[in-house]
Write a structure and sequence with these properties.
By secondary structure, this protein is of the alpha+beta class. It contains 4 helices and 4 strands, in the order H-E-H-H-E-E-E-H. The chain binds zinc ion.
């Protein structure tokens, strides 16, 4: 957070509003609680960011874990397992979390440009 404030960068977060409802339908209670905590964490980060004067952009969380951050190809098969991202279209490979973070960052830039266009 201090680093973001010092360098004048923003933070992009997945907008997970409503994830509890989606998760509750098919996951055990344990996962619901985890998702709830993660949602709270997002708001905590936003609160801290506002106090530090750091911009926060909420982005659409759809498919961030399945989209190739190199070519944009979307496929469930891009995720052979929990940790791995391997694009079935262009061959780009990366740790799954890193690939998802790149997608979130890219959407953050797009969202920032749109919300500050006019
Ligand atoms: Zn690709």
């Amino acid at each position: 957070m201090t680093e973001a404030a010092r360098t004048g960068r923003g933070i992009a977060l997945e907008d997970l509003q409503g994830i509890r409802d989606r998760v509750r339908l098919r996951k055990p209670q344990r996962v619901t609680l985890h998702a709830w905590s993660f949602h709270q964490l997002g708001h905590f980060i936003a609160y801290k960011a506002a106090r530090a004067g750091v911009a926060v952009v909420w982005v659409d969380p759809a498919y961030t874990s399945q989209v190739c951050s190199a070519c944009g190809h979307v496929a469930k098969k891009n995720r052979p397992d929990q940790e791995t991202f391997a694009c079935t279209s262009c061959g780009f490979a990366e740790h799954a979390d890193v690939n998802a973070a790149r997608n979130i960052a890219a959407r953050g830039e797009t969202g920032w440009a749109v919300s500050h266009a006019a």
